[in-house]
Design goal:
By secondary structure, this protein is an alpha/beta fold. The protein is built from 13 helices and 21 strands. Helices cover about 30% and strands about 20% of the residues.
């Protein structure tokens, strides 16, 4: 059994992704064998966690050095005196990197076992404890206080409540059981707390649960890159579409020194509430969050939040931030993606509606930043090529800082456009050598900067 096997994909899904990555232009640029090798390497990398945990400093309330000192003390306590370096990103000065320790191969496996679902297992690889809903199976003799070896069922074959499992599983480390087997599977639907507290994870990552909450925001490094590419300036009026939970929204406001206006839209009330909560926690007052469908952003009668005024989108904006799609592919370690093919294609009409709306808005703006968290090339480079072919007055702008690899080869994506696009690979993010493992780091975030011709 391999420690971290290639990510498990349904056959039709893998073929769909492979067809995009091995298009005619890519094969001509490398050769079919090399292109296939790169694709297989990508799938192998996806099952590993990142080499570091990244947090963004809220520079609106404190300096990076002050927060770095506070964080050092917090981690020293958390790791029981173990000194863990805190690195400042050389190109993104408000981003701190904490190296993830692992994989640790000297952890003794226990007779008592617990099996968790693949999604829960992915979270454990990022430093989470095991919560009761994620536990699928537990040894028949497991009691509260026992040292338990935790495994991930990457193929979803383990039956709920099983007493043993001999299928394909990945070892995640050891922990202390908070409950007995009976307590876990007692049938109480309201039981949601920690079931196993991880003490010896294969990958040791810091926990940021209530750690300096007003000073730090736990955020994937590629997401922080997006906001720096946007380069918000004090006094600007910026539109953030699909903004929840507010990571980039609050980053924009902080980089603007909370001077200006950030309009944040999301169509679900609970997500809008989260944006407002994060803005309040970080002490940012330039953010106005609306429950608003971004695909209908020019139809003012579509406002859902009756407690606030209309965002008055017709007045025009400066930069616009558009998250077209977020599958979280490549952003978190994944030993299994069990999706069917339909979700990969079903979202396309929604994307087209949002893209057309953003083009209309971009005609009133200086720049539009388009980004996705998806491995599907038709949603990344393909969507940009389509936009340039469909709409007049658009041109590619250079993404600065450009820390990632350029966009992939694709029909209609000329050399100039290709260089203007960023396809994230974590080992190319400009981090100190100690902060990344080039053989395991990869991600799916894709960024494009579109300059729109003014029509007003």
């Amino acid at each position: 059994m391999s420690l971290f096997p290639k990510v498990a994909l349904r056959h039709e899904v893998e073929n769909y992704l492979k067809e995009g990555f091995l298009n005619k232009e890519v094969v001509l640029a490398f050769n079919k064998q090399e292109a296939e090798r790169k694709f297989e390497t990508l799938l192998n990398h996806l099952s590993h966690p990142p080499s570091f945990t990244t947090v963004r400093v809220n520079t609106h309330l404190a300096s990076v050095q002050h927060v770095k000192n506070l964080l050092f003390d917090e981690l020293h306590k958390q790791f029981n005196g173990l000194t863990v370096p805190i690195l400042q990103h050389p190109n993104l000065q408000d981003v701190l990197l904490i190296p993830v320790i692992g994989p640790r191969k000297n952890i003794a496996k226990q007779q008592c076992e617990a099996i968790v679902g693949a999604q829960c297992g992915n979270a454990v690889l990022r430093g989470a404890h095991v919560y009761v809903p994620g536990i699928v199976s537990a040894s028949k003799f497991m009691k509260a206080g026992d040292v338990v070896s935790v495994y991930s069922d990457i193929k979803g074959k383990c039956k709920k409540g099983a007493k043993e499992f001999d299928g394909v599983k990945v070892f995640l480390g050891n922990g202390i059981s908070e409950l007995s087997r009976r307590g876990i599977f007692s049938g109480l639907p309201e039981r949601k707390g920690i079931g196993i507290r991880m003490t010896e994870p294969v990958y040791l990552s810091p926990s940021f649960d209530n750690v300096l909450p007003s000073y730090l925001f736990l955020q994937n490094l590629p997401s922080a890159v997006v906001t720096h590419v946007l380069d918000p300036q004090p006094g600007e009026k910026i539109l953030d579409l699909c903004a929840a939970p507010g990571g980039k929204t609050t980053h924009i406001a902080a980089l603007m020194h909370d001077q200006g206006e950030v309009i944040a839209l999301d169509k679900l009330p609970n997500k809008v509430k989260k944006i407002k909560e994060n803005a309040l926690l970080l002490g940012l007052h330039s953010i106005r969050a609306f429950c608003f469908d971004g695909t209908k952003a020019l139809k003012l009668d579509m406002v859902k939040d009756t407690e606030v005024q209309s965002p008055r989108l017709g007045e025009g904006f400066y930069p616009i931030l558009q998250r077209a799609l977020c599958d979280l592919q490549g952003q978190t370690p994944a030993t299994a993606f069990c999706w069917a093919l339909r979700p990969f294609t079903a979202a396309l009409p929604w994307e087209r509606g949002l893209g057309a709306c953003c083009h209309t808005l971009a005609c009133l703006a200086v720049v539009l930043i388009f980004f996705t968290c998806s491995l599907v090339i038709t949603r990344d480079e393909g969507k940009i090529v389509s936009a340039f072919g469909q709409y007049f007055g658009l041109k590619a702008g250079i993404c600065t800082p450009h820390l990632n690899k350029q966009g992939m080869q694709l029909a209609g994506c000329n050399v100039g456009r290709q260089k203007a696009l960023q396809r994230n690979e974590k080992s190319a993010l400009g981090c100190p050598a100690a902060a990344w493992r080039p053989n395991t780091d990869c991600s799916a975030l894709f960024i494009a900067k579109i300059i729109a011709k003014r029509t007003t």
